[in-house]
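Complex record, four chains
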Amino acid sequence: MVGVMENISALKKLALLGGIDGIVTLSSPEFAEHISSSPQTASRRLQALEQSGYITRKIEPSGQKVMITKQGRKVLETEYMEYRRIFTRPSTHIELTGKVITGLGEGQYYTTLKGYHDQFVRLLEFEPYPGTLNIKLEGESVGCRTMLNLKDGIIIDGFNSKNRTFGGGRCYLVKLGNGTKGAIMIPERTHYPEDIIEIISPDNLREKLELKDGSKITVLVE
Amino acid sequence: MVGVMENISALKKLALLGGIDGIVTLSSPEFAEHISSSPQTASRRLQALEQSGYITRKIEPSGQKVMITKQGRKVLETEYMEYRRIFTRPSTHIELTGKVITGLGEGQYYTTLKGYHDQFVRLLEFEPYPGTLNIKLEGESVGCRTMLNLKDGIIIDGFNSKNRTFGGGRCYLVKLGNGTKGAIMIPERTHYPEDIIEIISPDNLREKLELKDGSKITVLVE
DNA sequence: ATTACTAAAAGACGAGTAA
DNA sequence: TTTACTCGTCTTTTAGTAA
């Protein structure tokens, strides 16, 4: 395969136009402007990206609605991380900083569900406090968060109860203040924005670390 | 021009091989492996990059010594920042965090030099304390620092004294703790690593903020 | 107006070769 | 061994055209 980079560059442009977190509507001639090419090439780029599975499209007489797939996102993340490696010294640990916020209360529910609970105990090696701490990441940490997507985590399997299906996810062990242990839980399918993380811990973190909504907190991924 | 991205991709590889902060020694066949191409194409890539002014080379019978130029670095930085924009929400402010270190003592010298001093007073609108605070950036901030290269700063002109030439640079106004004002000074030509920044301020920052070597500090670029 | 096909032009690629 | 040239082949691009 040759000319791969041109396609990735086109994918990057689509992401910058908003295709990363939603649908971007454009026509070939429009897109051609953005990538400085002829409309034909722009059209071909979109075809190629679709065939590679990096985007999905809905073609309409007035143009097309484009969305970047998980796979496409992965390609961009890999690219991003390579550039990141160039400009940042290799640091052993990933640090994520943000502010405590109140979540949807789901945390308390699913940490007590046997299907998840038993996996947490077995794989994370601690008894999770019923509830999660939600952190809205700030500044650089938002970008840093995407690094986790490339890091192997502890896989939590999904399962079925009689009524519904519970999705899987993955965890990363972290250290909080005062030697407090915990884990970031990232559901496989989430409608949470990328800049919010959920922490499971054996402790009631709000109590132990004296946290309120808005408190600044840093977690250290191991 | 077509196939630009292939060249930038090759430049990225060179950077990852160490060409960003020094000289990388390799032969065309070697480089060909890295970019998955024939030695001919690898050779052509290097030629093209040289012609674009992105690298300089010294060709020797045993191979070549390659170095990425300022211009080449700029290209990579632009690329990096584009990817960064995709994955991080646009935040108005850049935050840099690091630890206080002891510098070379130059700061005290040049903040008192009339040629610089007067520009600081006029452009930064404060009387600089004689001395600078050196901060070694940590983790994400190292990458964040490169963002400054793309941001317009306050230009400090160089000047000549009878004996020597003093180089120019640029400043960025920042806020430190407790509403303390200051500015990052980045000399145009520095042998300082990219992960160290120098802060000028009207105050003696070590005293006012009670800083010692190793103290953690965050500066907020305006 | 689109998208996407076909076909000529342009360009990139790798093999062979010289220095 | 290198680097880098030429050359034939193959790929990619743009123009033109159909739907």
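Note: The helical segments of chain A are 4-16, 28-35, 39-51, 70-87, 106-112, 114-124, 140-148, 205-208.
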